[in-house]
Amino acid sequence: MNLPIWMPYALCGAGLIGLGLYGLLARPQLLRRILAFNVMGAGIFLLFGALARRGEIAYADPVPQAMIITGIVVAVSATALALALIVAHAGAGGGEGLPSDTPGGGKRDERGDDDARDDAGHDRRIPGRDRRRNEREGAAR
Amino acid sequence: MSPALLALVLTLPLLGALGAVAVGRHGGPVAVAAALATLAAALWLAVRVATDGAVSIAVGHWTPPLGIRLTADGPAVLFLATTAVIMTAVVLYAVHWITGPKAGADRDGPMVHTFWALLLLLWGALNVIFVSRDLFNLYVGLELASLAAVALVGIEGRRETLAAALRYLLFALTGSLLYLLGAALLYSAHGTLDLGLLAGQLGRHPSDLLALAAMTAGLAAKTALFPFHVWLPPAHAGAPPAASAVLSALVPKASLYILLRLWFDAEPDGAGPVGPLLLGGLGAAAVLHGSLMALRQQRLKLIIAYSTVAQLGYLFLVFPLVAAAGALDPAGGDAAWRGTLFQALSHALAKAAMFLCAGLIIEAAGHDRLERLAGTARALPITLFAFGLAAISLMGLPPSGGFVAKLLLIEAAFERGAAAWALVVLLGGLLAAAYLFRPLAAAWRSPDGDAPGFAPVARRRQALPMALALAALGLGLFSAGPAELMGGLP
Amino acid sequence: MATPFDLALSLLVLVIAAFAVLGRHGFMAVVFFITFGLLLALAWLRLDAVDVALAEAAIGAGLTGVLLLVARSRLKALEPPLAPAPHPVLRAGAGVGAAAVTTGLVLAIPALPLSTGLQAEVMEQLPLTGTDNPVTAVLLNLRGWDTLLETLVLLAALLGVWTLAREIDWPGRAGRAHRTRPDGVLAQFGRVLPPLALVIGVYLVWVGGHRPGGAFQGGTVLAAAWIVTVMAGLLPAPRVDDRTLRTALLAGPVAFVVLAVAGLLADSVLVFPPDRAKLLLLGLEALLAVSIAATLAMLVFGAPEDRSGRDP
Fold it and tell me: Which of B79, B339, B450, C185 could disulfide-pair with B409, CB 3.0 to 4.6 Å?
């Protein structure tokens, strides 16, 4: 069998893309979805890099390599912001996943704290208190 | 001269953002200075392009395929100028909002340290997107815009806004990766990511179709096309009003703009009739669904946000309208092309005006629930007048920019013998009238005897949404100039 | 020619990734993810992309792994309510969509036309770019406009993290106070590792001019040195309004944007005149490494939090 060296890596990249996409869309935990985002990104980079290695030239095309390095840095930036949001969301009483109902859709926004919500919102609540409040509301519903 | 102007339009917001980080909590004046300078440069550039034609720069003098080309043509300068007008109004609005009495405690909080820089980074990213002709450079621009936008959504740090920011981020990241996948495939097959060099090359290989599908799906998710729109209403309604104005008016247009460039600049053939029909169908569904959802909302900001879902829907009608014109009849798509650009620009101005109005109403009343807005029109007459003017444009009534947009889209539909699309446009206008009538009626009601009072809002701040609403109107009154800049289908 | 090693490595990468994405246990998922990143770095070496391998190992596996571990431990301490299981229809749809994308790619890959790529063009212009490393030439000069925006993406992420601070914690020291026993393993580690990492980091930045390495890889190693020092409790994290910190964060992006603006004198943006390109790139790379190191470390430290009364 005369498989070129880039081929297994390109196919691996294709597999990672599907795997990551599935995890990004279908895993319940936010943390895992961000992990899956990184797997999908890595798959795209691997596919891109493997395809750039197809020619008969002895060295790889530097343009995709530079783009991939840029992509890796962009991905870590997005990951850092996402993880900080996830922790802050949990700190403010949110779960480890996103609530399934969309505000304003379905059940509508009949929540009691809508007024506070629009109060230009500068009252940054203390996480613990906020969580207790949310639990109370949850019990009331 | 003109290349230097383009360079300034691109770099001034970025310099402003870095300056704002450097000065910490005194970022406001830096942002105002950067905004006014960028506005001047953008308007001047638009005038130059209108008189002398498009301006093009090869970054670092490296021409594609090796380097990146930045081109400010007619449509690009229209978006640059509109963005500059909206951003300047938002910056001037936010200066008072961020140091206003309510935010007094925030004068040295994280808000003042981050808001200005994020807003200016977002502006810089949008400007890059409007002129860059390189698909990977556009990717980095999109990511910069997305991260700054997501941060602005969550900036108030409450659980609901954090959830909205996260939902938005997940959609944005999925969309970006799909886009990046397409770009990687295109580079692998064609050895370039320059839109100009790709023109006429796309559609030759099966992988191109896959790339185009992935990029289109990714960009559609970022543009909140139905059914990928679920992130938009909570994000746009949850952000502070100054940020909402930018997020709703401009950010989805950036991904749409790339989609238009991809489809109409790079002219993929072999896309078949199914793709355009699907995009148009989802656009029509967005118009109807967004409007009906807007009708059901009890809060002003949610009405405005759902209205964005509907108004973005019109922008996807261009795909079937142009595809129906056929590749051999490019002139036939001109009306659809111009109608779409008019819709994008007039919606941007009107929507920014509306969110700033909502912000002022919230500042005055302390909330935005419709049933308790009675008496607002008496307390904030200028604001409500501005809201009404913006509503005229969204409904598509003459003489607004929205009217010109819808007229052109209907004309294109009839020219193509596809009256169903015209029906969508007409129905959308009627529904817009219905969902925008509700807040106006609520505000004009007389308050009950014991209604709470309104906090005063300075006139000059009420003038900001007024200026934007008048600009949306002016786009219709003086439509000849912009129409000429738009040109025909590229 | 692909060897059995390549086949095995590709397969292993896929399997480890599947464990990371689909596994039940959250902590193990992160461990699998870090392993996945290190194996990927190996794959990049096999593809002759040493610069990418370094970036993947340092940023993709190392830094992302640290971010995930830190986030997981903080999340665990908060005991958030469990995530609702996604709707079966959504899961099925995601499965079908993901399978369709992978199938499409697998079918398209062998049929993909062979483009020549841009190796030859880059090599032709290399003498004018001011560096001997073609990847650095593309990254900083030929496509420097991408990289300029990328440094701003990093900055935007940090600003986004900072928005999440509570007002009472602002402007405190970044993150939480790390208290470690002075004779503990981490503290010992913290004394030995940073000087070593400092040397490696500076070397990587310097060597990027002619061999694999550069501001991003070197900057990440420098960030690692700082992160370990702080986590070991040997140095406190800086205050977010610290002047030196802000200077470090901004030095690289400011140099980049100023260089871009200066390009308008030559009717373009971001021009590196060939006769001065080497010096400009060297200076830019050094400043970028400082800013990248500072930004990445601050991203790991996080927003100021919970320091009331505990820290002067």
Answer: B339
